[in-house]
Amino acid sequence: MSVKNFKFVSPGVFINEIDNSFLPKSVDAIGPVVVGRATRGLAMQPIKVESYSQFVEMFGDAVPGGTNNDVYRDGNYVSPMYGTYAAKAFLRSGVAPLTYVRLLGQQTSAGSTAGLDAAAGWKTTERLTTAASSNGGAYGLFVCKSASGPDLNDNGVGSGTDKRLHLAAIFYLNSGSMNLVGSLRRGDGTAGGGTASFDDVNAPGAVIGMDTNSLFTIEYSGSNTSTPKRIKFNFDDSSDKFVRKRFNTNPQLLSTAATFYPASAVDDVWLGESFEQELRDRDMATATLQGVLLGLASSGSANTGTGPQNMKSQASREAVAGWFIAQDLSGDPTSYLPQTQQKLFRLVGRGHGEWLHKNVKVSIEEIRQSNTNATEYGSFSVVLRALNDTDNNVQVIERYDNCTLDPTSPNYVARKIGDQYTSWDPAARRLKTYGEYANNSRFVYVQTNPEVDAAAVDPLYLPFGYFGPPKFKDVISGSSAGESTVGESNYTGSFVIPGTGIPGGVTSFTGSGTSVQAVPSVPGTVPVTGASPYPIVVSGDNVQAIQPDGKAATAIPVQCATASLIFPVNRLRLSASDGGLSDTKDAYWGFSTTRTSGSTRHDSSVAAPNRLLYAGFADDPTAGTNGQIAALEATTGVDGWSYVFSLDDLVHGSNGYFHSSGSRAANGSATTSSYTSILNNEINRFTAPFWGGFDGWDIQKPDPLYNLGMGAAVTEDTSYAYNTWRRAVDTVSDPESVDMNLLTAPGLTNNSLTQHMINVCESRGDSLALIDLPSVYIPPHEKYYSDKSSRRGTTPTTVVNDLKDRRVDSSYGATFYPWVQTRDAATGRMLWIPPTVAMMGVLGSSEAKTAVWFAPAGFNRGGLTEGAAGIPITSVTERLTSRDRDLLYEARINPIASFPNTGIVVFGQKTLQERRSALDRINVRRLVIYLKKQISIISAQILFEQNVQATWDRFRGLVEPFLANVKTKFGITDYKLILDETTTTPDLIDQNILYAKIMVKPARAIEYIAIDFVITSTGASFDD
């Protein structure tokens, strides 16, 4: 301080205290980025978590793999998710936060059309238009009750008994054929017409009854099951013959034998959706049934068919809750249609894929009209609930109270929940954020109708209902209007079931009864539809196949019966008393998730009708007219919504409130006089489902991102898996968007991608990439080996030579050898994990014990047996000899050694830099990363200040105490900061530059200890 700053009035000694020892304000701790799969959570964007409990809340627990239960319904837990273990290992140290990038399948625009490997999603083999290839696809089992009289010439109205055929289950296959086995039924329902097992050539549409034990029988065969396989089953989930217990539900078993599973384990069919709630509602779950097995996929050339079997070229997409609609304020109930009511807003997932519609529902509750003269806008609450809860036991995930549709209010629903979303910009290779209001929800954002945003709707509007999920159109017997595309058939009228064998099976028809004719799927072209290699014409009691040249084949006598095909929809609450609520005002109307209307138990099939119908499905199917998708209005077969629910269709009777669709239009609704009448009686809540989420994975792979599936010479446009990994890494490439000091993608061994990770870290200059090497251990999800010794795909010598050939030279990367074994805490399962997982724990615990500049190796900080990894480490895939360790370490591969007496320990800490320097060690590289990052943060405090001596002194006052502190903690042995006219010259000042030099001497770790033992004679003196 200058003497001029002292005030001298009378004589005396003037003392001022100058403290140069203070530490700068601490900044947020910086931790690693881990890239990998997880069971749930926001995907393809960096999400920071502060603890492992928070990680579990967001992304789920660590997944050890080895679970082969109901894979299609419950999710793929067959392969380990190594990223979750890396997060667990690091976060247990508690030293810093961790940023996780959860992966979901992504594709480039070029890759979406380039071929099967390039495109995201999955598909079965197509049902093709050649006789030799007429196999594969999705098959729906439609059933009706035998007890109600099997006369299928019924539209479900007569005699008050539902005799229509309802979709009970969908089966998928890649090759061969599958058929119902049993007695054929005539059109009048009587037995007859022969008995047989049927394939694509012999009437797959024949009506088959259950046997005397009330069991269906399906027979199938294919490339994996050359001997036909028969399975008996029913739809009673309390029975050991329940269809999901009897059939394979793992799509991965349809792989080629010895790819992922032994030949004895593979299969040709998997059961996808089954609709138990639909069957229970129609008293079919335990009844004696009749059934018909029909293809649900449109035919065509390879990979072009549309239907539930073709989800290829579909990247991950978000589940949505259908548009919430307002109450009817028209004053004319007779013209009321719920689908014409004002759309208000909808909820869209923020990056959860399929998980959202399989696990979450949304309730609108506490709907209140305005009770003040200050505003006409009412209020409501938006509540995200667990899908498996019930109205008797509500489980709230998130809630937002006192929401309003007033755009000027702080409680505006978009502002309250948030309306921002992220989108990947492929040109800029980064995420961009859109929307006005920051997200407060971890699960959804609000998409408002522009009219609502502009305050151009009636302020009295409140959310009163919603559009239900889309569905395939029902096929109604006797209708002459366009009704359905049941995948493979464009039914324009009655659906015709042949009673005896027809070459080619079922196709599309127009007309009804026995007077029907096949119609082309595309007007003006040669008709090619259905399972048949050629279309057929039915006239009277004859069926006739048409050849490609237009000539008719031999007519075959046939008995036909018309029938209605009904596709499942979610049940809606019928009565306020459903479920035995103690207070019927607690009833949530709309979407019901219980097993039966009176049950308080969740039904595990309720999400099945809400799946994405097929790849490329419209984002907003309510945009069209007459319930059809706008982009596909010329095509029959899809309803834009399965139903539209509204509180306007509630009726108040002697037994309380109940829902009756159409009651408002019939002047029988409880809201006929005013919508406020039910709100005043506290009937003010309803529930809606989410629908249409998709993960973008190939579900026929145990690990959709497996390394062997990518190969060596791949690009973003030739492999969706490669593109998914690379895009995730690029998401964190900008240091101004994401703070990190480590980057790892456990289990990823593709050389191009791991090199890209190193390049990203080097470009950022503030991170170290931990990478795994190829073929060190080949886990079961990569390839099936009957001999476990084959899983060791390389040796120390080979891995050293391979790394040399790659010519990696960077201090921003490090690697370790071999894999290690851990024990999953939740299941007790033993599994092999890549070394990057263990090293994340070691780096975290080492930093917690000391600091980032201490070597993460040796028995003090690298003792894996002693718990340094944060998770138990019990073994190594290969016990290294002293020569092996020398060979690896010389090649910059850090060995993980196992010693008989002292256990497993990390025995090296080299980076991948070839040249000898201080930066060829991990502890020094991490020290320099730490210094650069922290000093950069400190330096930002003087940006745009005057470039004068006082500012230089301020910079010194910030940086020198920081360096002194690092020296005190043994990070550096000495340092020097130069900031004066020799560094910041007048010329640099004129360029608005402050230039400082910081020189440091990093403290080195002891890696070699040399001790001379001198043996002397007895008479020698140690003092000599």
If you had to describe this structure to a student in words, what would you say it looks like?
The structure is a single chain. With 1024 residues, the protein is an alpha+beta fold. Among the domains are: 131-313 and 476-566, no CATH class; 320-471 and 570-614 and 641-691, no CATH class. It has 18 helices and 48 strands. Strands 13, 14, 15, 16, 17, 20, 21, 33, 35 and 38 form a 10-stranded mixed beta sheet that branches. Strands 2-3-1-39-40-41-45-46 form an 8-stranded mixed beta sheet, sandwiched between helices. It is globular, with a radius of gyration of 34 Å.
Measured distance between first and last alpha carbons:
57 Å
> Based on the structure, what is the oligomeric state of the protein chains?
single chain
Runs with pLDDT <50, length 5+? Answer: 1-6, 18-26, 128-134, 148-160, 185-205, 299-303, 478-561
What's the alpha carbon Rg, rounded to whole Å? Answer: 34 Å
Helix content: 10-25%
Q: List how many beta strands DSSP finds.
A: 48
Which shape, going by the Cα principal axes? globular
Major sheet description: 10 strands, mixed
Mean pLDDT: 83
What structural class do helix, strand and pairing data support?
A: alpha+beta
The fraction of residues assigned to DSSP E strands is 15-25%
